[in-house]
């Protein structure tokens, strides 16, 4: 391959259909070599049987096979620091341009700036595109240009803006004949990157008309299999957000549609306020004197708090990498309010365990339950983990599934009394916020 080529760099867009950056690369004049980099900066922090890495690897191998079988091309897979990989690529290939889709997390923005600087040194164009969201950065803002920090007005403006755009699906598969004719590009096994296959599986998503139609009525009850499981697929881009929006609109389900808008709300918050990844949006909340008791945190992690709905949620997370959204709110509130443990501890634990972990949504939701974030629950809103059972798991089906010793002598005593914990929380927060 001595002739100039373009590179398309897959990141959070692991699909061959409706992929904006890939489409733009394929429609340009040069043949395209697709690549993926297992980023050691990210992987080195993960457990060696991480289900997300297995999922990414399996997805890449399926894409690679499709490209080999149907197009006489392939997908080059590398492992290391992206900047080092690109230094090698620049030496090994005559590269005219690099195409990729934008990533909005703080680390990704720094990484991409470094890559762009390197490519510029070599007179190589770096083209980035919006793909994982409908609206990005400052496309949905107030009239004065300031970002929204409350969801409802953001959502209304989002919908009004959506009516004005040319909503396009990019038929990437129609242009895949412009790939490099090379079916033996570099490949890596899981063991090559230092990982082993996880026993956990990432579930297929369900956006059937029935699920979307009944979403409002069923989504709050964790014993029912009534959630779409879209999270990991949106996170890694194995589905197109544009096609998911199409589905939501086709079924005319406002609630399902608005859940997708929440995702974009938190993404633009992280874009405008990158400090929120580890600092409270409302800075005075960083004055809270957290107890941060390590034994209490361990009990919470293991699902041994003595509060069955909290424990069921944590055990579901530990065993499957998934936790029902309604239960996520409860376990988060319990950690911050009942145990007075810093939301950042919980956020880090979810980052390690959740298959659908996405920094913007995870940080946004943890700060919501802690009271420190945008549009957050007021600090004095403290979920009662016992009355929540009657609201959302009345027959104890979810609890019995994940806490088999529930209602027996083997089940642990409550680690803290609800009333005592509530009063302690209110006093601690008041002291911090009134300084």
Automatic annotation (TrEMBL):
Cofactor(s) essential for the protein: (6R)-5,10-methylene-5,6,7,8-tetrahydrofolate; FAD
Residues annotated as binding FAD: 215, 256, 259-266
Molecular function as annotated in GO: deoxyribodipyrimidine photo-lyase activity; DNA binding; FAD binding
Domain Photolyase/cryptochrome alpha/beta: from-to ranges: 4-134
Top-rank taxon: Bacteria
UniProt site positions, description: Electron transfer via tryptophanyl radical: 290, 343, 366
Swiss-Prot/TrEMBL keywords: Chromophore, FAD, Flavoprotein, Lyase
Free-text remark on how the cofactor is bound: Binds 1 FAD per subunit.
Gene3D superfamilies: 1.25.40.80, DNA Cyclobutane Dipyrimidine Photolyase, subunit A, domain 3, HUPs
Protein name, entry field: Deoxyribodipyrimidine photolyase
């Amino acid at each position: 391959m001595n002739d100039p080529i373009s590179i398309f760099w897959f990141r959070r867009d692991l699909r061959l259909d409706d992929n904006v950056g890939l489409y733009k690369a394929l429609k340009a004049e040069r043949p395209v070599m697709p690549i993926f980099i297992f980023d050691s900066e990210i992987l080195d922090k993960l457990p060696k049987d991480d289900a997300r890495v297995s999922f990414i690897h399996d997805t890449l191998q399926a894409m690679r096979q499709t490209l080999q079988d149907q197009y006489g091309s392939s997908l080059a897979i590398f492992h290391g620091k992206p900047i080092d990989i690109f230094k090698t690529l620049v030496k090994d290939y005559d590269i005219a341009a690099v195409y990729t889709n934008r990533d909005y997390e703080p680390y990704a923005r720094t990484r991409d700036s470094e890559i762009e600087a390197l490519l510029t040194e070599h007179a190589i164009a770096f083209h980035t595109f919006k793909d994982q969201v409908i609206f990005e950065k400052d496309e949905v803002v107030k009239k004065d240009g300031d970002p929204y920090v409350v969801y409802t007005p953001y959502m209304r403006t989002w919908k009004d803006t959506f009516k004005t755009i040319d909503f396009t699906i990019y038929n990437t598969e129609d242009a895949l004949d412009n790939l490099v004719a090379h079916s033996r590009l570099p490949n890596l096994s899981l063991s090559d990157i230092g990982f082993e296959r996880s026993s956990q599986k990432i579930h297929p998503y369900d956006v059937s008309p029935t699920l979307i139609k009944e979403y409002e009525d069923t989504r709050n009850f964790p014993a029912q299999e009534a959630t779409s499981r879209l999270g990991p697929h949106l996170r890694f881009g194995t589905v197109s957000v544009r096609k998911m929006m199409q589905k939501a609109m086709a079924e005319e389900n406002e609630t399902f549609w608005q859940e997708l808008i929440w995702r974009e709300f938190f993404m633009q918050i992280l874009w405008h306020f990158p400090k929120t990844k580890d600092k409270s949006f409302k800075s005075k909340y960083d004055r809270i004197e957290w107890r941060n008791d390590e034994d209490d945190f361990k009990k919470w992690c293991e699902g041994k708090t003595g509060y069955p709905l909290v424990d069921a949620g944590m055990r579901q997370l530990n065993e499957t990498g998934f936790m029902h959204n309604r239960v996520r709110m409860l376990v988060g509130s319990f950690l911050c309010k009942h145990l007075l443990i810093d939301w950042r501890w919980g956020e880090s634990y979810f980052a390690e365990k959740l298959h659908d972990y996405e920094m913007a949504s995870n940080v946004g939701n943890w700060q919501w339950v802690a009271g420190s974030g945008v549009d957050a629950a007021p600090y004095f809103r403290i979920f009662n983990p016992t009355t929540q059972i009657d609201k959302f798991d009345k027959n104890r089906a979810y609890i019995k599934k994940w806490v088999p010793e529930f209602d027996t002598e083997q089940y642990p005593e409550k680690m803290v009394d609800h009333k005592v914990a509530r009063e302690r929380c209110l006093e601690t927060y008041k002291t911090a916020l009134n300084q």
